[in-house]
Write a structure and sequence with these properties.
The protein is 55% helix and 5% strand. The chain has 865 residues and is mainly alpha-helical. A hairpin with a 6-residue loop joins strand 8 and strand 9. The longest helix has 35 residues. The protein starts with a helix and ends in a 13-residue tail after the last helix.
């Protein structure tokens, strides 16, 4: 108690601490004594009861510690008194010092305000945690092989901005190599004349694959050490946009500044995001000297020269042979596995066989080595180990399949865990996963007995394909190739089992259903009533154990007591259990770990086009009506509309949108088209299933939007019809929209052109085959002043698949072209060198001539309709 009071007293006098070295030394010695006392008590508390009796704290120790505290306290007090006296004397002798101090304080306040403004400015660039991803990868290993590359040393010493692309095959360790390059560059840079920015895209963090996140994080790192120069004149830290951030960089970075950028995982980004990233990096290069180092994966069928079309002037180089690193890595991993007894051997010479087999089969893949060793650790006999060494999987896909087959004790948990990990918007923690696995989609009754007693056996069903991060305690797949393997559904991955096979849509639907059900638990609305369970001690002690809430040491101890009490007929279990349950507190909101994730990401999952059951939708709309979901009208309107258009969904679309202040009146005349934005979002994200579903929903509406029979009206989605009626499209006698107006409202303007510009070829094929889509719309070409039609776009992109489909007999009747335009199309097709396309163009010209006939008198200018 004396130590506590004294500590608080001296802590309040921290203002004089920097003024005296002696005071600093006295305080340090004082708190050292305090820590020693605490350490003694901590060690004493860790002992067993017998140990406490044999080694109790002596009164002499306590007295010695108290004497030391008093001695140092007196020294501190004397030094403080001396400092105060010196201060008073100094102030009396020279009053100017006070004015100097005030000026210094004013400068310090001004500097503090600048720091606050700089922090806001940096946050406007990006708030993404880019350091954690680098730190996690950096811990995976060390390498210096990149220094052996002449191209790397030339890149460092180059007189002008250059781009270096390091190419390696799957599992080589490209991310680890770039993480080591960050270390090397950090030692070479200074905050004044040069700087370093890095970013590692993560396959399990969708935000990290967004261009705004990548560029914003890179710009933040460049601006941070130089940002204090920005506040010599007023700036607006609230506005956003690449152009503003680039302008801030130009103002902050001095002349002749050299910037190094290390970017890993660009392969994970979509083509659209990659294009934006490369464009912004090129603009940064035009503003100052920028040295860019990028990693790219080299697939077996990919040529080295075509690996980086986004960086046409880059130096492309293969990463060097890593056999020396692989050998050292195998040795270190085997030593660790044997030391911690995860790998047990009967014959010690087998370890040399393992080492040779892994070295021969690795082919430069570190990931392959890791997975093979972990797979061998599950084998219990030397004979089985030798059999496994004789039949080692050659590729990653084969070893993924073997690992999942080995862990086949509970396929249901295996599939659910993998789906949740892949579909999560950020890596789930172990506690969040434990709660998610206890949720039955659609059942909003909270039942604590469904909560897993231990999540370790469930995670073990996925083998070593998932890993738990030691810093964040989050779950991840060990490599992006695991996700690709599970989702691609090819002949190799089908070997696993039908229960583990799933699509990305399955994963999205599952996680959305789970979090909606979870948020619908009544436990979040009312207090939990704690009841004593009705127990029958005699026949089934296991029931007693299962009915206890929680898995603390007390619970396990009580279970043991109950088991041992079976031979004591007079034992009253109800009194003991009553006493135990009264000591327990009801679960608080902190005990529900998944709640924060569910609230933060539920609407983001709604925007991923999940297909959910009716009862889950009812729970979602009930939460929405009760105001328990935080909605962003601009971002979440499309996701809400998607859920409202699901089969059997019943919701007041207009009422919900009006509560969100989303203006829908006269949308067919204004640009705020919530319905068309939904269709455009499905195209942009490449969700072909969502595009097909929306086309099917809108089809009966557009074909029968007036004069429909009763049977035809049944095919129209009821909520969509109610939506249109509320918009006065049917109920107002003075206005009936045309089919073109409805089509523009549902699909937007030139949606097919947009799909082709985005290179969503599969979606474009679906839209071309649908008679609801106008295949003749003219739209502006991005980054150009020209306009073009879908067939013109397909010709310029040399998209043979869509060209053939547009000119096929089933589709060409919907084309509207003059004979001259068709002849020009034929000439372009001949230049492409594809005989089948040219033949289709010739057939189309002949088709036009036959259709128009000689009666028009002007083939050149006539159009078919």
């Amino acid at each position: 108690m004396e130590a506590g009071r004294s500590t608080q007293q001296h802590s309040d006098l921290a203002l004089v601490y920097p003024r005296s070295k002696a005071l600093q030394s006295y305080l340090t010695e004082y708190f050292i004594v305090v820590v020693q006392i605490c350490l003694r008590f901590h060690r004493f508390a860790q002992r067993s009861a017998l140990g406490k009796l044999t080694s109790s704290l002596s009164d002499t120790d306590i007295k010695d510690a108290r004497s030391s505290l008093l001695a140092w306290s007196k020294s501190i007090q004397a030094e403080i008194s001396l400092l105060v006296a010196q201060r008073i004397e100094s102030e009396a002798e020279n009053g100017s010092r006070f004015r100097t101090l005030m000026v210094s304080t004013a400068k310090s306040h001004s500097q503090q305000q600048k720091q606050i403004a700089l922090r806001k400015l940096l946050d406007s660039c990006s708030t993404h945690d880019y350091e954690t991803a680098w730190r996690q990868i950096r811990k995976c290993g060390n390498t210096s092989l990149y220094k052996q590359l002449p191209e790397y040393n030339q890149w460092l010493a180059g007189p002008a901005s250059k781009t270096l692309i390091l190419v390696g095959k799957l599992g080589y360790g490209k991310s680890v190599t770039l993480a080591n390059i960050v270390d090397d560059l950090y030692l070479r840079t200074t905050s004044v004349s040069s700087g370093l920015a890095y970013f590692f895209c993560r396959h399990d963090v969708p935000e990290s694959m967004d261009a705004k996140t990548v560029i914003g994080a890179l710009m933040r790192q460049f601006i941070h050490p130089l940002g204090h120069h920005l506040f010599d004149e007023p700036i607006d830290a609230e506005t956003h946009g690449f152009s503003r951030l680039l302008d801030l960089m130009r103002r902050a970075i001095p002349p002749r500044y050299v910037g190094y950028v290390v970017l890993d995982g660009l392969d994970l980004c979509s083509a659209r995001e990659r294009k934006t990233i490369t464009e912004q990096l090129e603009l940064m290069r035009n503003s100052f000297h920028l040295y860019l180092c990028v990693s790219r994966r080299l697939d077996p069928e990919t040529e080295l020269l075509s690996i980086a079309p986004d960086f046409p002037k880059a130096d492309i180089v293969r990463l060097p042979d890593n056999s020396s690193d692989i050998e050292a890595f195998i040795t270190a991993r085997l030593e660790l596995a044997i030391s911690n007894q995860s790998l047990t051997l009967g014959d010690p010479t087998i370890v040399l066989e393992i080492q040779d087999a892994l070295l021969q089969g690795s082919r430069g893949m570190f990931l392959w080595v890791v997975l093979q060793i972990q797979s061998l650790c599950t084998i219990q006999t030397d004979h089985k180990i030798r059999e496994a060494l004789a039949d080692l999987p050659r590729g990653l896909s084969q070893i993924y399949s073997r690992i999942l087959r080995q862990a086949k004790s509970n396929y249901s948990f295996q599939a659910v865990i993998l789906k949740l990990i892949i579909a999560a918007r950020r890596p789930l923690t172990v506690h969040e996963m434990r709660e998610a696995l206890s949720v039955t989609p659609g059942d909003t009754t909270w039942n604590p007995s469904k909560l897993l007693n231990s999540i370790s056996p469930a995670l073990a069903t996925c083998g070593c394909l998932i890993t738990v991060d030691e810093e964040e305690y989050t779950l991840r797949t060990v490599h992006p190739s695991v996700n690709q393997f599970l989702l691609r559904g090819d002949s190799i991955s089908r070997i696993i089992d039908k229960y583990t096979q799933f699509t990305m849509e399955d994963a999205k639907t599952l996680i959305f259903s789970i979090i909606v059900t979870y948020l619908g638990y009544g436990i979040f609305e009312t207090a939990v009533a704690v009841r004593l369970p009705a127990l029958n001690v005699g026949p089934a002690p296991s029931r007693i154990i299962n009915s206890t809430a929680g898995k603390s040491r007390g619970v396990q101890s009580m279970a043991l007591k109950l088991l041992r009490s079976r031979k004591q007929p007079s034992f009253d279990a109800s009194r003991t259990l009553a006493h135990e349950f009264t000591r327990r507190t009801p679960p608080s909101m902190e005990d529900f770990h998944l709640k924060d994730y569910a609230h933060a990401y539920i609407m983001r999952h709604a925007r991923t086009f999940p297909v959910v059951s009716c009862n889950v939708l009812d729970s979602f709309f009930r939460l929405l009506e009760l105001g328990k979901l935080c909605i962003n009208p601009h971002k979440d309107a499309s996701g809400l509309l998607w859920l409202m258009l699901q089969p059997y969904a019943k919701a007041d679309i207009i009422g919900i949108f009006e509560s969100m202040n989303v203006q829908l009146d006269h949308e067919i005349y204004y640009g705020r088209k919530t319905v068309s934005r939904l269709f455009r979002l499905a195209i942009r994200t490449g969700n072909i299933r969502a595009v097909q579903y929306l086309l099917a929903v809108y089809r009966p509406f557009l074909l029968n939007y007036k004069g429909a029979t009763r049977e035809e009206e049944k095919a129209v989605h009821q909520e969509l019809r109610n939506f249109c009626n509320r918009q006065y499209w049917f109920s107002d006698r003075d206005f009936t929209p045309s089919r073109h107006q409805l089509s523009e409202c549902f699909f937007g303007s030139a949606s097919l052109n947009y799909a082709m510009h985005e290179r969503q070829d599969a979606i474009a094929k679906v839209m071309i085959s649908c008679e609801l889509i106008d295949i003749n719309e003219v739209a502006a070409v991005p980054d150009s002043d020209t306009w073009d039609t879908p067939i013109g776009i397909a010709m310029k992109q040399q998209d043979m698949g869509n060209l053939k489909l547009l000119l096929s007999p089933k589709v060409r009747a919907r084309l509207v072209l003059t004979v001259a335009e068709a002849q020009g199309l034929l000439d372009q097709a001949k230049n492409l060198g594809d005989g089948s396309v040219a033949s289709l163009c010739e057939d189309y010209v002949a088709f036009l001539i036959r259709k128009i006939g000689n009666s028009s008198g002007n083939w050149e200018g006539s159009r078919t309709t």
